[in-house]
Design a protein that fits this description.
Elements: E1 2-7, E2 12-19, E3 23-31, H1 33-37, H2 44-65, E4 75-81, H3 85-102, E5 106-110, H4 111-122, E6 130-135, E7 140-147, E8 150-156, H5 162-173, H6 179-187, H7 212-227, H8 234-260, E9 264-268, H9 275-288, E10 291-293, H10 305-316, H11 318-321
Helix pairs in contact: 2-3, 4-10, 5-6, 5-7, 5-8, 6-8, 8-9
Length: 339
């Protein structure tokens, strides 16, 4: 089954053709990062307008690179939640029109489910059940993946997502947007123990995360240095901050794995591209005898290939869960992965 997939939940307009959930025939991503860098973050109105401009040529190119015509696709998939509502609506409405014109099934896909499915593309042997850490600019979840379409959230952030904390801390350190990649690079040059930063915990929820206090601690530390006339060692602050985030993510995920009995761990989302996080998980999983998967860098960020991968399994489960949609399909800024 060849699925044409569309992703427009934030600031990337993406389209891909994916065969049987595992083979990517084409994957095109039009990024808006350079434009949003001017503002230090994503401007929703600008993102929506750029999606309108890019979605037709991006999808046309994806079909051409797959060596197909539109009429040869077997279904149309689209991210419908969660994300920036204006951005999502561009993709959803385009997909609805395309599916109607082609008389093809329309498959709605949850964005976080898509991030998890990125690993199916990279690792043909990977199958549920497993435990997955999804960490990105908008999401930080520890999820039990019981089957391809059955999920249970057992841990989540109570405030900022990990990627959001990276971006805000990076801005305070003087790095450009998006901050995660700059902190990762700077951390390699810095002393991760130079600055003492907190490791917040949620007392009544051992698997939950909280990054707001850590982000605020970084900002306050930088302000205090400036007030005293002292020079900020940005590389060491980046290293100290990254160490704290990585420690929290690794500790909570491994605790959840121990308590649930999962022996296979999966990473997903934009933050899974962080080299410090990957290295820490590789080391700890090696010590504990756990199997670890994380996607290649090109599949960590938002892309349509991951949406096409998950769409295949959503389509297969339609008889039980009604995974197909009609023209009444709407977009949602927030929506549980469990639904």
């Amino acid at each position: 089954m060849r699925i044409l997939a569309i992703e427009s939940s934030c600031d990337e307009t993406a389209c891909a053709v994916v065969e049987d959930g595992r083979k990517v025939l084409s994957s095109i991503v039009a990024s808006q990062v350079e434009e949003h860098q001017l503002y230090g973050g994503v401007v929703p109105e600008i993102a929506s307008r750029r999606h309108v401009e890019a979605i037709v040529p991006v999808c046309r190119r994806a079909v051409e690179e797959a060596g197909m015509t539109l009429e040869q696709v077997d279904g149309v998939a689209v991210t419908y939640a969660p994300g920036l509502i204006g951005a999502l609506l561009v993709g959803v409405n385009f997909a609805k029109g395309l599916a109607l014109a082609l008389d093809k099934p329309l498959i709605p896909v949850h964005h976080i489910r898509g991030h998890i499915a990125a690993n199916y593309i990279a690792f043909p042997e990977l199958k549920p059940p497993f435990l997955c850490l999804v960490a990105s600019g908008g999401h930080s979840h520890i999820i039990e993946v019981a089957d391809y379409t059955r999920f249970k959230v057992i841990g989540r952030t109570r405030d900022d997502a990990a990627g959001e904390a990276f971006d805000k801390a990076a801005r305070a350190m003087g790095f450009p947007y998006p901050g995660g990649v700059y902190i990762d690079q700077a951390a390699k040059r810095g002393d991760e123990r130079k600055y003492k930063l907190p490791l917040p915990k949620v007392a009544d929820a051992p698997y939950d995360l909280s990054f707001s206090g850590l982000k605020t601690a970084v900002i306050n530390a930088i302000h205090n240095l400036r007030q005293k006339g002292e020079t900020l060692d940005a590389d060491s602050m980046a290293a100290s901050f990254q160490r704290a985030v990585v420690q929290m993510l690794v500790e909570r995920t491994l605790l959840a794995a121990r308590d649930t009995g999962h022996k296979t761990l999966v990473l997903a989302g934009g933050v899974s591209a962080n080299s410090g996080l990957r290295e820490a998980f590789k080391n700890r999983c090696g010590e504990l005898g756990l199997t670890l998967y994380f996607p290649p860098l090109e599949l960590c960020g938002d892309n349509a290939a991951m949406i096409g991968a998950q769409a295949y399994y959503e389509y297969q489960s339609q008889s039980q869960a009604g995974r197909l949609a009609g023209l009444a399909l709407n977009a949602y800024a927030s929506l549980s992965i469990e639904g």
